[in-house]
User: Fold this.
Amino acid sequence: MSGQRINTLGERLDRSRSLRFTFNGRSYQGFAGDTLASALLAAGELLYSRSWKYHRPRGIVTSGIEEPSALVQLERGAHTIPNAKMPEIELYDQLVGESVNGWPGALARLFSVNRWGTPLFPAGFYYKTFMWPAKAWMFYERFIRKAGGLGASPQVEDEATYVHQNIHCDVFIAGGGVAGLAAALAAGRSGARVILAELQSQLGGSAHRQTATIDGHSASAWVRAAEAELAAMPEVRIIRRGVVFGYHDHNFLTVREALTDHLPLVGRSGFRERLWRVRAKQVILATGAHERPMVFGNNDLPGVMLSSAIADYATLYGVLVGREIVLLTNNDSAYADALVLRQAGARVSVVDARTGKAPAGGLVEQASNAGVSVLRGHVPVEAGGGLAVTEVVVATMNAGKAGDPRRTLPCDALGMAGGWNPAIHLYSHSGGKAKWNEAQCCFEPGSAIANQTIVGAGAADFDVASSLQSASQAGAHAASAAGFAAQAISYAVIEPVAEPITAFWIAESGEPVSRRAKAFIDYQNDVGAADIELAVREGFESIEHIKRYTAMGFGTDQGKLGNINGMALAARALNKPISQVGTTTFRPNYLPISFGTFAGVDRGDLFDPARHTSPYPHHVASGAPFEDVGQWKRPWYFPKPGEDIHQAVHREVMAVREGVGIMDASTLGKIDIQGPDAAKLLNWMYTNPWLKLEVGKARYGLMLDENGMVFDDGVTVRLGEERFLMTTTSGGAARVLGWMERWVQTEWPDMRVYMTSVTEQWSTFGLVGPKARAVLEKVCKDVDLSLAAFPFMSYREGTVCGVAARIMRISFSGELSFEVNVPSHYGAAVWAALMAAGAEFNITLYGTETMHVLRAEKGYIIVGQDTDGSVTPHDLGMGGMVSTTKDFLGRRSLTRSHTAGPNRKQLVGLLTDEPSTVLPEGAQITEAGATTVTPVPMLGHVTSSYFSPTLKRSIAMALVRNGHQRMGQKVQLPLVDGRVVSATVASTVFYDPEGKRHHV
Amino acid sequence: MSEMTLQSPLAPILGAGPRALQVDGHAVALGECPLMDMLNLRGNPQDAAFTAAVAAVTGLALPLQANTATLGAGRTMLWLGPDEWMLQCEAGQAAALEKGLRAALAGQHFSVVEVGHGFTTLSVQGPGAGALLSRGCPLDFHHSAFQAGQMAQTHIARTNAIVLCRQTGTDYTLTVRRSFADYLFRWLSAAAGA
Assistant:
């Protein structure tokens, strides 16, 4: 076999545009319109890879996306694509590719010993051999994967960009062949919104292989006219290079549109691929069919190809792969291929499994008349050749047996036309179950799911006239169902008289399959007919199990080429009809899809929103590192030059304790609650009483879930008789609002109360420390800030820095503190003004880390850090906040036997014996002293731990079993690094237990 | 009273005006309608006294059909739920409107909350506007499906947004919480290939 160009054919080529490319380090030339496969075939290349397990030489088998052997590592570096299929790569100038299964060089014979060692590599070989000992797999795997030689994954980030786009339509059509176009025309003429996706760069599907005429034109000419008509319809969108790779529930489909892969690397701009997310009222599947190879010995030799592929390379790309071509068939389609190849100048013989006389007016007759030699009643037994096919041995069919005489036919290219498998993959994605069509020898779609129609070869309708008619009717019906007045179009089709296919799965020569020359089913995974039989002998009966045991269909073609042969041979080995063995389930994705397509724009800093508070630009300018709190970016600490986090936090803490600090607390959740029943609602939400809170006063509350466990906390202010402002944790804001809405909407619809999130309406700045009042007095003249006039836990409205503000005297640090809330569009300006006002007091910026240390010194909890959904107020030592005189959410659960029982984990403080030792958060706690019990009983774990600059020692909070009864007792903490730290159980309030510092 | 500057969330990046983008060959201008005042309004739409009072004070009929808005001169009333609306108006009007509403609704069960500082509004204009939005939003932006006066509370990329069609096919606004504005602006720019 040695391919060469012919000038009379090649409808996709633009011979005026020559393209240069490099493959395996060698330079080649092709034409615009070539695929990588056609250009290499035209250059006479034969051998593209060595097979996975046996390292047999392999050539190109197909002209499409089902190609198993001719894989390429396309381009290098950031543009590299592993395992691209050569027939699907449109050639572009300066393309660079390397064969994938070629290591260590496609032609080297280093591993070809496997060819002679077949018994060493039966089905299930890897399961049986490399699984023991388990740890050795790590070693085997490296070797096997390298020798197996699938492509190399990219080592650098993909530079290409990707985008998603949602789109809706009345009628979605998968496939742009004759059937798909007929459906689109019928639907499109009604004005319906139609989307047609075709995976190739050009419409037409198999039209170029059809001998039929439509309304007096060749099928190809009809396609061009249809394309032009559709292009003029404003509501019709044709997506070329668009593979429908997933068909999900409710007619939701995903289509990958390749936008730049056909262009030279240097000329590419914009998105590489677009993922269309299609929602269709009606779906028409016109996905066509894949030709089936035939199973016979050495059917993997280079030069053995699908018959249709040999014809495609001639018709579309002007490449004749052989001069002496034998086509093996059991149906009519090989004769159309033979006619093309005759026309291209080859000597062509067709070996047909069918016996008897062909019908008059059929393709067989046409081919014979054109000089194709036809040998009926013969089936292939084995091919022969070294690095390429040189002959095929065929046997005579006699009463269903393949017997003598045998003939040897010389050839330099061997075509396989084993029938057609409808591409039922998308139908299968949608939940459809395939059924066996005995007459057509193929699996076809069973009943359609809702709002779906399947037409053309994809529905095992291989007749042009009836395909056109049913597709046009489907298009009209779909548009009508979507509310448009549509009519089917009639076409006058003249096509040859068809002769039925006959089943051929393997030559029934009487020899055991395992003794014959290797006959392949799945080329990429080196699964042969004997492997299927072995799997059956070893007890596998379900086709799903046989598939997994043999690895049939596991390759990059996902069994599109060989699986049906495998199923038929499994049925043969099981002595069952194929209909009872069934087919495996096809799942998305129809083709391999790059990760970038799924990521779309959502990568890098657009992977997830980063939420910023109003003074964010000031924080950035201050050089603060940021801590992620949910999606919020909060300043973590504000280092001075040369400071590390510990030094910065130490300075910030001391500034708050001794002077004044400022922190941005804007992320706190805030909910405005209005209505006559607002106080009643709060009384249900919180464990403590709320009905009698005075206007202008604030109160701290704990919120429990249905199980009585703390799930949020915060301070709520009574703004008016019927209006409150609730604050929640930063992370809990949405959950708390949803929780309250749920109760009001579903349980208490008569409660007259409305809730509105105002988290972002107000920017919240804490002025904290003994000098906080002095700072605020400079910028707030209309509120008496004295202790007597504005005591702790109260609220005032006033003007701060010229802006109407809400001021709360609450504290999360134990110090004198004013929380100033201003409308957020003023936030950046007010922040700057407060900094300026505080300058004379050396006002100090502090972040979340210092906030944590300050609150831990005071024993204030952080919900979600010191609690974990299993902690009650009593466990926290906050039982005093639980009212015994009213009902509230979670109350009943507090009386459950376990919740109210002994031995609960309780929040306590821990003081390490060695004051400089800071315990790791999460450290496990055990009883002091040696224990002989294994495993060692765990008492609990550390929830918060810091070095306290104020106390000049470490402090920690921990949940400890019966912790409240252990005050003053020793516990120990075995750490991951082997140290065992001893600590004393203490109160969680480490600093200012009397609370004198904030009552000033 | 104030020499304090108001700063909209996108002011730092959109100082020079809307960004010109191209989507599939169609122009899109991505900008901000900065510093609009907004009020969240709750009440009972079955109560004629409520709807009449709101119409009298705001000059806009309350949209009672789901996912619709009443577009007025410089003022828009958006449907957010069966008993919830958002009034968008020009800067500086919210306080007076809130006062007017409180007076007109006195004695009824209602809620008015100023929320304009918690949001900002992006404008997406031009023949490619729908295509750009469809890159991040599963809604149908076809002219037959989403027309002037229609709106939706949906998501664009990973942000909640109130999407309003002001002019069929060519003019949309996206009202988002202020902290998401920077992300959404950068996301939409990237989705246009910019």
About this structure: The two ends of chain A are 97 Å apart (CA to CA). Residues 464-481 of chain A form the longest helix (18 residues). DSSP finds 24 helices and 52 strands in chain A. Residues 901-1000 of chain A form a domain with the Elongation Factor Tu (Ef-tu); domain 3 fold (CATH 2.40.30.110).
